[in-house]
Amino acid sequence: MILFSLLLLLALIPYFLKKRLSSFVIILGLCFVTYFLFLIEFLTGNVDYLISDGLKYFEEPEVWIANIDRSFWGYVNYVEKYWDPLGGIFIKIINIPILLLFLYYFQKTFPLIKSPYIFIFFYPYLLFLAISNLRDLLIWLLAILIIRNYNKREINWYVFAVFCSIALYMLRPFMLATVWLAVIFFEIGPFIKNLITKINVKRIASFLVFVLALGIVVFFASPTIGKKIRSYQYNATYLVTKGYEERAKQRRADGVIDASNMPKAIFMSHVRYVLTPMPHAIVERMFSSELSTEYGITSEALRLYTQLVYYFILIWLLFNLRTVYRSLRILVFEQKAFLLWLLAFLPIYSIAHFGGSHQRLKLPFQLLLLILFIYSRHFKKMREI
Questions:
Q1: Minimal CA–CA distance to 150: which of 211, 231, 199?
Q2: What is the sign of the dihedral through the CA atoms of 86, 91, 93 and 95?
Q3: Angstrom distance (rounded) from CA 68 to CA 204
């Protein structure tokens, strides 16, 4: 309760300062409506209060604290379980203020979208993530904060970007790597050009402070980082050489993906990631003889709506590829960097999970397409005027 209240107050501040309290109230209200619908399912015995990984985090937070990939979320669950009154209840909704913060900065990054709650109108499955004890929303928030604070190009914001980087490393290390690869991809060219054509002493000095601060963190964390890099190298080598078929069986994907032909399997995994779950499959699951699913009917209903909107957006983009390309050219640095980071979810989870990832791991790619849809439509209307 205490941690939730503090986070909610923290989320309220930017909305209050920018006079967007109506957006705050709308998002918060929709989150609690979703929570109460879920509570009805829980109280009628159709679904557990904490589901899947969310239950594992809360039951054994000490185990996750020891795992650098999830240690930050392990600490959150540890505080809620042992220190926070009613923590066992509030851990379920701890992500609501995190969603509020993410949507605020997401909309700030893409100001063509007038209000943060617009994203929920398109993809209401975000509401279910807000009542799930999972790391995803905090990962997204930290990623966008790193890119935005780096782009301010001042010493104090560089330092804050470093702290956000440490936190992201303690949630999902390879996602930190993809954030900085996205930043470097769009930064290296202009930085070299500015260095050659016009030297900005203040900008170079602040950048060097950032590099120094990040270097110090990397130096002290080098044993852990080195171990993690070696594990990623081992896993990648194993998959490429002999482990792809075996992993397909472990993931129960061998029935839909022929892993014996690796190039074809990777291509089909990408297709599966983009196109599934198909709406009719969700409907069948909702109305099957089993009157509930692992995540509950509320989850499936929000998922169905999200997928229907996503399919519409996907089809529209396919018929307007030229407009999409032109709209991409008008985006600024932090917009392009964050979209590239969202794109990284496609190859990572297509290959690692054979495209059969849960909805929450597909939402970043779907948010990418949503931004392209909104900006492309705006670009198209402007050309027609």
A1: 211
A2: positive
A3: 33
d(CA 102, CA 145): 9
Of 206, 194, 220, 218, which is closest to residue 158 (Cα–Cα)? 206
pTM of the complete model beyond 0.90: yes
How far is CA 1 from each of CA 60, 91, 138, rounded to the nearest angstrom?
A: 19, 8, 18
**For the chain, which ranges sit under pLDDT 70?**
189-210, 213-214, 217-243, 251, 253-255, 289-293, 384-385
The candidate with the shortest Cα–Cα distance to 118, out of 23, 224, 260, is 23
> What digits encode the pLDDT tens for the residues 279-326?
888 888 887 755 456 788 999 999 999 999 999 999 999 999 999 999
